Fold this protein.
Amino acid sequence: MSSRNTVRFALAAVLGFAVASPAAAATKWVMASGYPEASFFTKNLRMFIEEIETATNGELTIDLRPNGELIKLDAIKRSVQSGQIPIGEIRFGVYGNEDPMFTLDSVPEIAGNYDAAWRLMEAQAPYFDKVLGEAGIAVLAYEAWPGQGFYTKFEVESADQFDGVKLRIYSEATQRMGELLGFQATILPFAEVPQAFSTGLIDAMFTSAQTGNDVQAWDFIDHFTYTGTMHNKNGIIVNKRALAKLDPAVRDAVVAAGENATRRAWELSKEASEITLENLRKAGMKVAEASPALQARLDEVGAEMVKEWSAKATPEQQAVIDAYLKSAD
């Protein structure tokens, strides 16, 4: 059974107790996301919405408010949970302090390519269905971020070159990775990156080609070494009560559109990765794939961080990793 069929059946189970209200006037939802209109995430949301409105003949319309204009990214989950809005897009890694499962995909090399990221998503979906379901939230779709890499002032051959280099990272997981690689790792917000380079606070960063485009990394750095390393996830989430109130046919259309949004997101992410890498080249940066030596060291760091993650995991959380690793056999 596919992961999205699993999600479909899980949604049916958690909503089965609810009796849908009689068909009435068209329903209008407001949806919040944290990314700009040009982002492939937002493009995916637009197609998700169009599919729903077409399939329901306008019985459900969704007013998307992107770029954090309605609700900031890190507040969207709570807003959906409380019913302030019925639907939104989140970045799972924002909520790592609530549950380590939200940042499992930030462990280096646990899902270093898109195929592995898909299998990890399939392994995690039942867990998220349960945990978020208990909070009154259903996950309609999962969306993968492009892979990551190192922005440096020098050509990278091995991790030995990282010793003492001041690295900008963006999460506790990437900070731990940076420390294990020998960096002086500092968590900095996206908006502070250009100034941090100009003042010497950092002299390297670890992030995606997309972020490199967004901050115009070529203004202060020369090399980008693509490693893959991790493909973090976003998710389209919905308030279960709001979903249960829909006519059954409309509800089915929403779930089906979510399944399609998941598959489409993986393809859009791959396209975005290629486009943004090419943009770095066009801007004059030297773009390279990680050397075998660097990739081997990242594998070692990833294995160590998996052990650290597992040491703190509950049996239920450990079962997710076990299921994922088994899927690779």
User: Anything to note?
Assistant: The mean pLDDT is 91.
